[in-house]
Specification:
Blueprint lengths: L5 E7 L3 E8 L5 E7 L5 H16 L6 E7 L2 H7 L6 E6 L5 H4 L26 E4 L2 E2 L5 E3 L3 H14 L3 E5 L8 H13 L4 E4 H4 L5 H32 L11 E4 L5 E3 H4 L9 H16 L4 E7 L4 E7 L2 E2 L1 E2 L2 E3 L2 E3 L3 E2 L2 E3 L5 E5 L5 E7 L18 H7 L6 E2 L4 E2 L2 H15 L3 H25 L9 E5 L7 H8 L4 E3 L6 H5 L5 E12 L5 H21 L8 E10 L6 E4 L7 H19 L11 E12 L19 E8 L4 E8 L8 E3 L2 E4 L4 E4 L3 E5 L5 E5 L4
Parallel strand pairs: 1-4, 4-11, 5-6, 5-9, 9-10, 13-25, 25-26, 32-34
Antiparallel strand pairs: 1-2, 2-3, 7-8, 11-12, 13-14, 14-15, 14-20, 16-19, 17-18, 21-22, 23-24, 26-37, 27-30, 28-29, 28-30, 31-32, 33-36, 34-35, 36-37
């Protein structure tokens, strides 16, 4: 058995699987990548472990824990592969999913043309059961077990094995849903069941129903995937004294991790887990660099994800969605745009150049991968313009420059442009797509994008950094070392987090302080029990309390912190004051001084946090001048004609070194083009700080 102990973070993306290993004693960090295997993500996962252990000269007995960001749930929803799903709800609400919400995408001007998409469950697979609870959880009409049995037998006879249950007002009292689950266990034991009172104890029946159904839909896939990984990880853990379990954590959308044993019961919490890991990693890097307001840009092979981080904390939302499905679970607020390295450039029937959202993905990939791709992509454009090297991953993935030029030439002929102008146009459209996403994520929170520094990472995230500075008027861009592996590193920096919510609607003047205190206590007890199951000592457990408030008559809420201590009039006033201030920050006004506009409390929330030790960021070695990292020159095009760009090996740059454009900085998993008129300086943590040069 190895005496060294390493923790491993693995982020599975659309094109590559990123791996980071940290030696728990020496603090050594080793990174690598391996191609993803979409047909069986577990293969890429295990190959990544083999590869990083090989680089460290270790075997599987050295692995002390593994944290994983998975796209299994996300991909199932994005691809619309939701089938064989049934729904049970309250009598009289059979068409709840059909009615949905009155909002129309792209505004009400689209009402004449928009066609409602198919429901997640067709109406013929919905069954209702008699029984009714009031808004306070009291029973108005008893649960009808005979109808429940009939519903269970219907689904069993139809071969429907995945079922979501959502009864009216079950957030206030789960008794009817629990009874329905017991009937299903007895009458249809093969069914996988999710009940809304365990998935989301929050009002608004449509969103609660959809969230519950999504949880049920992804539960079989997540369970199979996690159990498969767990079994195969056990093979790595076999030591001289016999087999042992390796702690295996899965990233959640809320910016925490959860043990594999627990996540199979909360599968919906894993959607968007990949973008969450990147945002957490960027927050750690930015905090160490002394930057407290950052936007993050995670560029992968298929898409780019952007988030906002203030004071080291990524912004959260409960108004998110995955594909066509709204989700009310807490998740890091991410805007995704189809502007990854594999995004395809195409021409509309009107002759307009477009980029994305279609992607060549990992298979066949861009034309320059020489794996059968035929459509021009963003990566092909970068290669034609000399902004990336003729190979990726240090030579592991050679690129076919001639094939890329050929496909760009054909596209440029259709558009009547010179090839380099066509390639530049592809990248310009991609830059503006990313810029619009960054504006969206910041402006909707009442933030000015010009007050932020951008942190770019992912394999393609830094390729357009200089253009984004100009387009958005940013302070600058921060590029961490090994940016292609930051999401995997982020997996090793996050704590165990569990969220609990309860709807408790009351106006400020009518608050029952004792009842609010009791509900917060119950939520904290639930969070405490979950952390105990995860093995955290009572002294290490932390709890964060928040509340969703609004002005009476508003339809949506604003979340604010609730201080520790018993709920009394003074604490309630403090929370209301925080709401007024946050409302002004978001929307530019508040109604603090208008006695007609009363504050209303809606939801109480408690998050249980189990801290996990974060690896220390390494310090950069002292620089010897950028000339020591120079490897040559390459003909490149940055939008204003061809020039000779100096090429640098980033691993040979040290603290204080400065690179002036035109230049290309290369490393194993990423490339950073530095345009003419820009400079990149290495800070003490080996980050590249890119800014526009100040002219006298």
């Amino acid at each position: 058995m190895s005496e060294r102990r390493v923790r491993i973070g693995i982020d599975t993306g659309g094109t590559f699987t990123d791996v980071v290993a940290v030696d728990e004693v020496s603090g050594e960090i080793v990174t690598t990548k391996t191609p993803s295997t979409p047909a069986d993500p577990a293969e890429g996962f295990l190959t990544g472990i083999d590869k990083v252990l090989g680089l460290m000269g270790l075997d599987g007995s050295a692995v002390s824990a593994v944290s994983h960001g998975t796209t299994v749930a996300t991909n199932k929803l994005l691809e619309g592969k939701v089938e064989n799903l049934g729904f049970i709800t309250t009598e009289g609400y059979r068409h709840l999913l059909e009615i949905a919400r009155q909002s129309v995408p792209d505004g009400y001007g689209n009402s004449y043309f928009w066609v409602k998409p198919p429901r997640i469950v067709p109406a013929d697979r919905v069954r209702t059961v008699r029984g009714r609870l009031a808004v306070d959880g009291s029973e108005v009409r008893p649960f009808d077990e005979a109808e429940a049995v009939a519903a269970a037998r219907f689904f069993k006879d139809a071969g429907i094995t995945t079922i979501g249950v959502c009864f009216l007002h079950s957030y206030a009292n789960p008794v009817h849903e629990v009874a329905m689950r017991e009937v299903l266990r007895r009458e249809h034991p093969d069914a996988v069941v999710s009940i809304s009172s365990e998935v989301l104890r929050e009002y608004r029946e449509y969103e609660r129903s959809i969230t519950t159904l999504v949880d049920a839909a992804v539960k079989p896939n997540i369970r199979r995937y996690v159990e498969n990984i767990g079994r195969r990880l056990a093979d790595y853990a076999t030591a001289a004294e016999g087999p042992r379990d390796v702690p295996f954590y899965v990233m959640k959308s809320n910016g925490g991790v959860l043990s594999a044993a627990e996540v199979v019961h909360q599968p919906i919490t894993t959607v968007l887990s990949g973008p969450a890991a990147g945002a957490l990693g960027a927050a750690v890097v930015a905090r160490a660099a002394g930057v407290d307001r950052v936007l993050t840009c995670d560029g992968g092979g298929t898409s780019t994800d952007v988030t906002v981080v203030v004071d080291g904390r990524p912004a959260l939302t409960t108004e998110g969605s995955v594909g066509a499905y709204p989700s009310k679970i807490p998740m890091i607020d991410v805007v995704t745009v189809g502007a990854g390295g594999g995004s395809i450039a195409w021409v509309t029937p009107e002759g307009t150049l477009k980029v994305g959202p279609q992607s060549a993905g990992a298979d066949p990939g861009p034309v320059c991968y020489a794996r059968g791709g035929t459509e021009p992509t963003i990566t092909d454009a970068h290669l034609v313009l000399g902004r990336i090297p003729p190979h990726l991953l240090g030579g592991e993935v050679p690129l076919d420059a001639e094939a890329a030029r050929g496909v760009i030439d054909r596209l440029s002929e259709r558009l009547g442009l010179a090839p380099e102008d066509c390639a530049t146009g592809i990248l310009e459209i991609s830059a503006w797509n990313q810029a619009n996403a960054l504006r969206q994520i910041s402006i909707k929170r009442g933030l000015d994008v010009r007050d932020f520094t951008l942190v770019t990472f992912g394999g393609s995230g830094s390729l357009l950094a200089c253009r984004l500075i100009d387009v958005l008027g940013l302070h600058g861009v921060l590029v961490p070392p090994d940016p292609g592996n930051l999401s995997a590193y982020g997996l090793l920096t996050v704590d165990v987090r569990n969220d609990y919510v309860r709807t408790t609607v009351a106006r400020q003047s009518q608050l029952d302080h004792a009842r609010l205190d009791a509900v917060l206590g119950e939520l904290q007890d639930e969070a405490d029990a979950a952390l105990a199951r995860e093995g955290f000592d009572p002294s290490a457990r932390r709890f964060e309390r928040t509340a969703d408030l609004r002005y009476f008559g508003q339809a949506f809420e604003v979340r604010v912190p609730v201080p520790d201590g018993a709920v009394d009039a003074e604490l309630a006033t403090t929370v209301a004051d925080a709401f007024h201030a946050e409302h002004r920050a978001l929307y530019g006004y508040d109604l603090r001084d208008d006695p007609r506009q009363e504050v209303e409390w809606v939801n109480l929330r408690v998050t249980g946090v189990g801290p996990i030790r974060t690896p220390e960021l390494p310090m950069a070695v002292g620089g010897r001048g950028s000339g020591a990292a120079r490897t040559g020159t390459r003909r490149a095009h940055f939008g204003d004609g061809w020039c000779e760009a100096t090429v640098y090996d980033r691993s040979r740059l040290g603290s204080g070194d400065v690179v002036e454009g035109p230049a290309v900085i290369e490393e194993f998993g990423s490339t950073v083009p530095v345009h003419p008129g820009f400079r990149a300086e290495v800070d003490r943590h080996a980050n590249l700080r890119i800014t526009r040069e100040v002219t006298a």
